[in-house]
Amino acid sequence: AAFIETKSFPAVIGLLGKEVDFSQNLAELGAQMGRSVCWIDTRFSPGKREEAGLLQVLEGHLLEPPILKRGAAHYIGPGGYTPFGSEKLQSSSFLALLEKLKSRYDWILLTNAAPLDSAEARSFLKICDRIAISLRGEQIDLLTPFIFWAYDKEYCRLTFITSEFS
Length: 166
Known about the structure:
Layout: H1 2-5, E1 11-16, H2 23-32, E2 37-41, H3 54-58, E3 68-70, E4 73-76, H4 85-89, H5 92-102, E5 107-112, H6 119-122, H7 124-127, E6 130-135, H8 140-150, E7 158-162
Parallel strand pairs: 1-5, 1-6, 2-4, 2-5, 6-7
Antiparallel strand pairs: 3-4
């Protein structure tokens, strides 16, 4: 949370990594710190059919995403499966939604568990102010694009989180 807190608001923060999903905990922590937080799950994974969410907005079926209360934070679910997750996250409708949410929230957390070398994970480099990656044995070549992106500004925009120590 300190990584996010030291920068200006509003902030779009990408949370990547397959091993540990710390997004709900981070959303709760931000809310406890007095920040208004919206957590958006961008995992358009196959499997169970979910209630309406982000996907329906991006496809034009809904004007506003259903915003649910999850603890002290707000939550927008993915809304289902699409093989075009990267394209959806870079679409003008998603960018417009982020701008609208920035007027209401201090932190906007975007969660995704896509492999770091996927187009979907790399799309976060274009839309996030900062990124936190959950690590567990990733090779340096997977992290290199994120490291180069991190130092493209006057401050570091990347942090790593691990749940396992050897």
